[in-house]
Write a structure and sequence with these properties.
The chain is built from eight helices and six strands, in the order ααβββαββααβααα. It is mostly helical. The chain has one domain. The protein has a two-stranded antiparallel sheet with strand order 1-6. A two-stranded antiparallel sheet has the order 2-3. A two-stranded antiparallel ribbon has the order 4-5. A hairpin with a 2-residue loop joins β2 and β3.
């Protein structure tokens, strides 16, 4: 009963996390099906939890950091780690995966009239979606979004997150050590390295390589930008203008490239 009570308190305390999680479940189930969605979520959550457990005790892979325990009794903790923290990484990795797919899936320009006019038609072949280029680009997007998330989360006492953790040796990137971003890359690599072979082994029923998946991919990209906009909004709200501008300088060029790709001007065939 205490577990469920703390879980309900966690949802009430961190509703934005569970909104993002719900969007992830909705969009992932439509792209890869429920079975793969649960595998993706379970693998990433477990890898993230183990890496956080290790890092808070050995400094590997995120570098040394510690949770303050300021919200004990207000939200669920697992092994002294806030549940919502490790739960965030599956939907962030999935959103990053969709961003990578948006750039790398084979795509053709639409023919004829219809609501999709002007938008490329992406296909979903197994070989492409589980290949190394997708993995590496996913890891890059995954690490990039933490460049926005972690510095503003570190300033949680200035907004409704609260001061839930700290680095004993603050790093050079707005107080965040570079090791933290390396740790995110490690989590992304280990999670996808476990999930991709599983994706190949599972039945491909309903996952025809020729089906159009542009809309489903856009749902995942929308999740990515939803998290990005949320964090940038908080960043500017608490007065961290330099941090916010850094984020904009990273993502404006990427957004332009994504728009060109979706409109068929970048890597799309006739």
């Amino acid at each position: 009963m205490e577990f469920f009570s703390l879980l309900l308190k966690t949802i009430a305390l961190r509703p934005y996390v569970f909104i993002f999680l719900t969007v992830f479940l909705f969009s992932a189930a439509r792209l890869i099906g429920w079975r793969r969605t649960w595998y993706f979520m379970g693998i990433t959550w477990l890898v993230a939890l183990l890496c956080e457990f290790s890092s808070t005790r050995t400094g590997i892979p995120f570098g040394w950091y510690h949770y303050t325990g300021s919200t004990v009794g207000q939200e669920l903790y697992i092994a002294d780690i806030p549940f919502m923290d490790s739960l965030s990484l599956p939907f962030l990795l999935y959103a990053s995966y969709c961003m990578a797919l948006a750039f790398l899936l084979p795509a053709t320009r639409p023919q004829g009239l219809g609501l999709s006019i002007g938008m490329v038609r992406m296909r979903f072949p197994l070989a492409t979606r589980t290949d190394w280029p997708v993995m590496l680009l996913t890891i890059l997007f995954f690490s990039f979004i933490d460049i926005i998330i972690d510095p503003v989360a570190l300033r949680g006492e200035r907004w409704f997150l609260g001061q839930i953790y700290y680095y004993p040796d603050p790093g050079t990137h707005f107080g965040v050590p570079v090791a933290n971003y390396i740790g995110w890359a490690v989590v992304g690599f280990l999670s996808l390295r476990a999930y991709f072979p599983l994706d190949r082994k599972l039945l491909q029923t309903g996952l025809s390589p020729d089906r159009a998946v542009t809309g489903y991919i856009l749902l995942g990209c929308g999740l990515y930008y939803g998290v990005l906009i949320f964090n940038l909004t908080v960043t500017f709200w608490i007065g961290e203008s330099l941090l916010g501008m850094t984020g904009l300088l990273i993502y404006i060029p990427l957004t332009v490239l994504l728009a060109l790709r979706l409109l068929g001007h970048l890597g799309a065939s006739e």
